[in-house]
Amino acid sequence: MTTYAPPRPAPFGRALCAMITPFTDSGALDLDGAQRLADRLVTEGCDGLVLSGTTGESPTTSDAEKAELIRAVRAAVGERAVIVAGVGTADTLHTVRLALAAEKAGADGLLAVTPYYSRPPQDAVEAHFRELADACGLPIALYDIPGRTGTRIEPDTMIRLAEHPRIVAVKDCSYDFLAAQKVLARTDLAYYAGCDEHILALYAVGGAGYVSTVANVVPARLRAVLDAFEAGDTPVSARLQQRATPLIESMTAAGLPGTVTAKALLNRLGLPAGPVRAPLRPADRETTDGLLRAYEELVGSCVRPEGAVSSSVG
């Protein structure tokens, strides 16, 4: 059997979790819970953790809380995983301040979303990311998620930004698979699937891995998709991706933000999560019951190379 050799580096690892930010019942930052969750995620297959991203409720955590979270998670996982800090804001100067604070707190890399609300044109988008990359010493992943920001990082902009030595990766939530392949073909950027349904598809055309919301609850199941593909067993990899689809749909495509669904399921499973912060609202009982059913259906079975069903793979 031929072993798959990834064609490009994965600067932040291959299996990354967009980690939720645990809060206490009163809504305060739960650093102990964050450490326990981070340790579990790394133990069960995550190479890296993205903190204070979309799933981490970055719009409603303070700058001080973001730095505290990095320090706490670093203490919990040590050098076992890469820590990527979300630093994207609508304000270039604020973004730079967050980046410098994240570097000081012990982050290994940065995730920077396109400035939102103001909808800057492409020359301004490019200037924003260049100013960030010039100001800090950490490698940067560009976060392309126009459905939330209102602004794409257009492929030609991405290609120009790839010339900067500290801009090394992309978290792709553009839902533009052609554009992703265009950038992959013309740059050395490491492309990470930011949408769980694209994990295998993007990896198969040269992506570096994924940054997953669903990995908060099933880190080993999603890592197995990459592992099977790397082992040269594409049919098993495809079946593993397909088996995860109902949970992916329940958590990311059923009308609620992934933060809400991930925390609802983690809470039901007795894992660190706590409430979401306003303006988000918790999932109702019916929704949470549905999430739990999808989770139980996934973890109750797995795919062996011959296609047989087993319950032994975690």
Describe this structure in words.
Catalyzes the condensation of (S)-aspartate-beta-semialdehyde [(S)-ASA] and pyruvate to 4-hydroxy-tetrahydrodipicolinate (HTPA). Keywords: Amino-acid biosynthesis, Cytoplasm, Diaminopimelate biosynthesis, Lyase, Lysine biosynthesis, Schiff base. It catalyses: L-aspartate 4-semialdehyde + pyruvate = (2S,4S)-4-hydroxy-2,3,4,5-tetrahydrodipicolinate + H2O + H(+). The structure is a single chain. By secondary structure, the chain is α/β, with parallel strands linked by helices. 45% of the residues lie in helices and 13% in strands. It has twelve helices and ten strands. It has helices at residues 31-43, 63-77, 92-105, 122-135, 146-149, 155-161, 177-186, 199-204, 219-230, 234-252, 258-268, 285-299; strands at 15-18, 48-51, 82-86, 109-113, 140-144, 167-172, 190-193, 209-212, 302-303, 309-310. An eight-stranded parallel barrel has the order 1-2-3-4-5-6-7-8, surrounded by four helices. Strands 9-10 form a two-stranded antiparallel sheet. Helix 4 (122-135) links the parallel strand 4 and strand 5 (140-144). Helix 6 (155-161) packs parallel to helix 7.
